[in-house]
Amino acid sequence: MKRLLLALFLSPVIALAANEPLNISELAKDYCDATGQALHNAYGTNKSSSELTSNTITKLKSENVDLKLLQTTEAELRQNLMAAIDGVRKNKSKFASDAEFNKSLNDSIAACKIQTELLLNKS
User: pTM of the full predicted structure?
Assistant: First the structure.
């Protein structure tokens, strides 16, 4: 249940992607790691949703993640990240411990990478 909960929080952040010549694995890694870090920080800090979202978008830009390849815009990503962050915070009590949350988040990030690669490879 908890893995499903985190998967639901990550899924709005994952957009359909175009098939472009690029390093798909690196793009998926950068994207999923950055969004996963935002959710990790949402669970473990009191930083605002706006601050966490802005930090994530700044990180994605610094790693040259092209949101167009993910068929999303910065505004859509911002909205989806804020919803995911708020969802993690509202459901924080559903996790028995920090370790349980981290395991679920790591599993969700791994699934995000696979799903993002598949979507980027889709023609």
Answer: 0.80
